[in-house]
Amino acid sequence: MTLSLVDVAKHSTNKSCWVIIQDKVYDVTDFLAEHPGGSKVILKYAGRDATQAYLPIHPPDALKTLDLSKHLGPLDSADAQQLHIAQQNRVKTKDELRVEEQYKKRPPLGRILSLADFESLAQLVLSHKAWAYYSSSADTTSANVENARAFSRFFFNPRVMRPVRDCSPATKILGFDSSLPLFVSGAALAKLGHPLGEANITRGAHKGGIIQMVSSNASLSFAEVAAAAEPGQTLFFQLYKHTDDSLAVKRVREIESLGYKAIFLTVDALTAGKRECDVRAPWVLEDMENGPAYHVEGGPADIADDGGTAGALVGADDQNMTWEKTIPWLRSITKLPLVIKGVQCLEDAVLAAEAGCDGILISNHGGRQLDYSMPPLETLYRIRKRRPDLFDKMEIYIDGGARRGTDVVKAICLGAKAVGMGRPFLYAQSCYGADGVAKAISILDSEIVKAMKFLGAAKIEDLVPEMVERVDWQAKL
Amino acid sequence: MTLSLVDVAKHSTNKSCWVIIQDKVYDVTDFLAEHPGGSKVILKYAGRDATQAYLPIHPPDALKTLDLSKHLGPLDSADAQQLHIAQQNRVKTKDELRVEEQYKKRPPLGRILSLADFESLAQLVLSHKAWAYYSSSADTTSANVENARAFSRFFFNPRVMRPVRDCSPATKILGFDSSLPLFVSGAALAKLGHPLGEANITRGAHKGGIIQMVSSNASLSFAEVAAAAEPGQTLFFQLYKHTDDSLAVKRVREIESLGYKAIFLTVDALTAGKRECDVRAPWVLEDMENGPAYHVEGGPADIADDGGTAGALVGADDQNMTWEKTIPWLRSITKLPLVIKGVQCLEDAVLAAEAGCDGILISNHGGRQLDYSMPPLETLYRIRKRRPDLFDKMEIYIDGGARRGTDVVKAICLGAKAVGMGRPFLYAQSCYGADGVAKAISILDSEIVKAMKFLGAAKIEDLVPEMVERVDWQAKL
Amino acid sequence: MTLSLVDVAKHSTNKSCWVIIQDKVYDVTDFLAEHPGGSKVILKYAGRDATQAYLPIHPPDALKTLDLSKHLGPLDSADAQQLHIAQQNRVKTKDELRVEEQYKKRPPLGRILSLADFESLAQLVLSHKAWAYYSSSADTTSANVENARAFSRFFFNPRVMRPVRDCSPATKILGFDSSLPLFVSGAALAKLGHPLGEANITRGAHKGGIIQMVSSNASLSFAEVAAAAEPGQTLFFQLYKHTDDSLAVKRVREIESLGYKAIFLTVDALTAGKRECDVRAPWVLEDMENGPAYHVEGGPADIADDGGTAGALVGADDQNMTWEKTIPWLRSITKLPLVIKGVQCLEDAVLAAEAGCDGILISNHGGRQLDYSMPPLETLYRIRKRRPDLFDKMEIYIDGGARRGTDVVKAICLGAKAVGMGRPFLYAQSCYGADGVAKAISILDSEIVKAMKFLGAAKIEDLVPEMVERVDWQAKL
Amino acid sequence: MTLSLVDVAKHSTNKSCWVIIQDKVYDVTDFLAEHPGGSKVILKYAGRDATQAYLPIHPPDALKTLDLSKHLGPLDSADAQQLHIAQQNRVKTKDELRVEEQYKKRPPLGRILSLADFESLAQLVLSHKAWAYYSSSADTTSANVENARAFSRFFFNPRVMRPVRDCSPATKILGFDSSLPLFVSGAALAKLGHPLGEANITRGAHKGGIIQMVSSNASLSFAEVAAAAEPGQTLFFQLYKHTDDSLAVKRVREIESLGYKAIFLTVDALTAGKRECDVRAPWVLEDMENGPAYHVEGGPADIADDGGTAGALVGADDQNMTWEKTIPWLRSITKLPLVIKGVQCLEDAVLAAEAGCDGILISNHGGRQLDYSMPPLETLYRIRKRRPDLFDKMEIYIDGGARRGTDVVKAICLGAKAVGMGRPFLYAQSCYGADGVAKAISILDSEIVKAMKFLGAAKIEDLVPEMVERVDWQAKL
Question: ipTM of the predicted structure?
């Protein structure tokens, strides 16, 4: 049985809400209250086609969670055809036109010299919505800004007259080979920036010889990402644990069977950070189309509490995890190495070691959650100063703010096993797909090797704490 | 007996000065010298109607202090009518037109995401005079700026893996329930920003479940504010003690009978701060109307010493209060809890505790009095470091500079019982009345709860000093 | 015998150089080599009238040092008349026209609220040359900028609940009454800014009840300044000691007989600082008249070493003074109190005390001499921390960078007896003559009294070191 | 036998690559792979004249290293004539026209007051390529910027009342006379800025009485530089040691025979720094000519790894030097004093002293190599604090960031024997040739003498550590 556009249009309220996604009709009335992103954003499309809004921010299997009885069936094919034509013929928004124009004018990839070049270009070629989601951070944006600035308080004491002609930055992460002390940190919704999404990162990471950590909130399914990997390529999995343990077990089983090699349990994103730039994005776009002046009709509007794109992603996550309960439980269901992503202070690093974790990723989620959370490099430095023994008990990584080979090297000198980067690879793939990701890694490779040679270090183990000094001034950026 | 405009016009000098306020005539000749704001501002209206200038900056009962013999009687009704028509027909000033235009263009309240949004909007919709009065601060404005910047030197050491799904920010202030560790700090002249004045704040505070401290310099009478409160709603009173003890007693009796629940004795505003932006406001307006170029006629003008709006408010306040004399005296006349508002250093915090006060509000009056006074958060930090025992002896609050939920949480971690905010609520009510105030509280509620969850704190008591660290750099704002 | 313009014009080279000053002819050929400002600036006027260039930067008795045989006699009166007419009819420069225009547009003095207002206005109403001379400082200007910024690292810990209704800022300096802990620091060439020159400051200082220190490089004679003083008004003298002791003795005798009450021996200006803005002033003016584009004719020009206005003033000063020799010698020739102006470190403060000086003025000459010399407030702070006993052995003053009442109060809290200000009074008199100076003092008086009341200090002695704290951040200016 | 343009044009690929340089033909096919600057830049000129690109960045004897069999012989004279005419008639680029225009408009040299003036002017009169090469520094440019900013954290504690009329800044460096505690640090490719290249610096240094250190990468031959020196003028040599010891020996023999007086062994430039501005220069020029908009043809371009001008210079340098091997070897082949250029931390300073070096030059290569390397002044300060004995064991110099006489004096106070400067002299010679260099030295002389007098120092030995203080704030630049 097929349904027509007219049928669907009759269900356009919160009493009965149908939507069309990729030519199929779904009854989402009961789901409205559960939608992690709130009901409002769905009701905008009630009774009509939601495909364009849905696709870039949901993995393909997202609809699986909807009871089969709500899968109402395919759209009438003539009506589907009509939708496709309308989509093709529709007037493009100013933002879409801007993006098309800018994308055509991209420079040759060979002219990209640094991750900053990718970021500047990404701001031009990304849709406003994608840029807002990728670049935004919490509240005043201080946590994000300070993540990066922290690096500028650490200077090098380079050693000279040491043989460095044969210099190798290769290392191992959880026992897996990596060409660099660097990995791709999990980052959601790559399809917002490029139609191939996370697969671009997978392919680029392979070219560059580094490991990708895949987010639970990837816009491809975990199977699709795994399929993009070459044989033998290492993938890690960033787990957002569902409140429902059984669903979490199911997910772990799935990624185990797909060959993911380690679990990074996310503990720094229990609820959505307040990313105002992201929340504001739809209004900015609306004003861009219609002009900025409008009236407050009928007095002040209702108080909306729209969590932005982020709100949609973490709504079902477990906010009651504990060291005592969650770690043994995870150990009991999987043999994969376990890393805690989101440790943010010395005390929790100690607890993680005591809990027998294989590693911790010091991270404040790129400054997207708690504003004024301590920059990860500073936390790393505190561990180095006060509990250097922890570096022998587990692997310690950081992410957040690193943008240069020297940044990576500073963290390695202080004891980090590797440094994660998220946004830079999103920007690189948005600009040039997999080639962009490979180029980003190649830039970092060159920067890291140069830095090592200038420091008198021929291999990763030669990078020692004495080579960096935390200074009492702040470099002028 | 009624008086005519012609009668009044004959009394237009400092020898005999009559003014009309709301269709009544007053002889203020003898009062000129006593007027806290100076005689000049009254003489500008000598012999004519002063209603528009008088209303927004005086509470309705201000004329009570004028001897009844000086209440000369009503204006002739035809003349009053003539005044009203003239007022309606008068050419609006450029500033009034600007405000009307901007007010119409306010965004829907739902688009306000932060207190900063309210502030930006307030600068647009407020009259220049109101903005100058609300936003101005002393001398170089450093005290005000640094109040806020102080927060940016305190970073969080968040704890993870703690159950926070059920998170409550509720607390008690002087034993009274508050939905948040937050209260409205006393701020004068709300009517400058909105015709309903302080009542907007009262109603918004009720919706948000927080306590309002009402200023002695409110532009509504204390009874009017109390009348705006819902049954059971808690109001505190910010007392500016009059030099004349008997007048002070009278005021205390009045607010007791109105049901105010505590007294915040103001000790940081004995004389008017030098708020240059406020003093300059009338000249700016004059230049705005007439163009900025003018000549110095007949050589340099007299040296004027106009204290601005602030000067008018504190002229009669007691500058000779002491711990030994004033506290016991206050205790002897009232059973209400007593908090000293304006303590600014550790030594005075100790004295307040020794004097048996119920609490102190560390405040430099929003940076409006002494430039370069220590930011309240820094003073709180010094007490935490050197005399943590004081937190057990009395309740300690701070106000000044807090604009985000994270700011509030930082102060609570350091030991504050609650944080006061003044200007933000003035801005919110100026933009949207009581709804604006409620929205501001709702924003802070959301920010505070998010911050608590990210810190691993499920209740206020979980916020501990170890969670904040004063860093040796300054976040880039 | 009179001389004609034609006669004079024959002597226009460095072999024979005559100039006309105020209708008198002088042979300055032999003086060329001795001129403190270099020969070049004189040769520009060789064979013609130099009056306009000469007057604003020389005291009236400067020509006394020229041997009488070189006073060639008066100019022919018809020729003198011709010069006057030419001067009156000459085309005004763009800079002169700018100054006239701006001077007319000055605001009423009543609208000046702070010393910063005077400074902004001075930049508009001063000739470029005067502004360059007054405002310029050494090399990168860091010393000058940091003098002021130093104050922004000192915050107050105010005391409350102290009786301050009767608050007096009066004090004594070297035993002489002063209405404020403030004096006019010696500053040269007031006539560059206003035709009445230093006399404006003298009259304004009297109105404000503070003491003026008169510079050896005043553009009025010391007698003229003394004549502008009221009976009983205190003047101090800033001595630039001549290399020739006998000339120095002569000068001391002169100012003793004129009633000056103390000697401030200048030791921080042995040679001219490199004030690039001042050196560049004539070129800026030339380009302003002729347009900025010009060619290097015949290859690069000679390497000039023009010391600017400053170079002209200190050429003959003694560069070989010592504690052992100079202090006893000065004591032997005068009974006046002796203060060393220009002490810049703790060690020299100790030596001054040991040498029995009555006081020291910690000063880096307004940052006009040695770039990166320690800000005086910082030096004062170091003395307070390490040798507080010195404050009991002599009076200690500072100048440089203070612009607000709070600045003055900070220094007094740290132990300074008084604070000197130079440029602010030059700017004030340039804008409004003596009235401007009086207004500047009145502003400072009001600011100082407010600060004292807010600090809980009813008299100067109540200002104690505990009230200021050097913080580890820098206020944002 | 001569070759024609047609003959040459047949060899325009990487299989067979001929180029014309100054009317001679060379077969560089086999050399392509060895070219330190990469093959790409040569292939751009394959089969045609490369003279204009070759000359400014290669010393005249660079072609000596090409096997004689590859020197194919002279170009046919008519064809050579044709090339010359074509070169003369060719359309000038926008950049060339800009440079010509700006060069004509240079101010007279007498108006240059500071090294900053030279730098500002150099940016105008230099080709974009030259400016990019001279001014560029590594990665984020922080190392370069911080080199200069470091000086702004050191303030003076000047001494007064000391005889300074006779003040001399003369000193000795490695026993050789220098009029100032200052020398020219080696800097490559002076011909990029001025046709006379390094000889300008040699002549200017002689006029100013200071010593020039000549770079291995000079654009004149070492013999040409030596020939520009006056009899008795001291030259030092900055050695980039070739990987092949025998070539290194040959170079040492050559400069010994030319009369160079010391060897500064470069250890901070083993590989090219990442100077993005320099790498980007050709693209900027291309866009300048053709407009900035272009398309990515056929998908993203190849990933280029162009090391910029710098890459071409250090490709053959020895990356395996060690204290144990290299120092004794150098000592065994020459009696010249030996200084290690590029020491960057205390530990290596100790090793240099233990290895018996005559001196070290603390340098991070002007911030052009490792970003965030410690500023040399800070390293000097650390040696002064922790190992002051090292100053007695060898001479210690610094370079990087010094731009003022006060900068030099600060380093001397801390124990440096002399301060090197590189870029400032390149800028000075680019603007005005040898006269510019002499003027730069004269400016520094004047600034140094003034600073010494203001500090109370009559000779270099009077400059002591107590005169400088590292402050905990940063001057506002």
Answer: 0.92
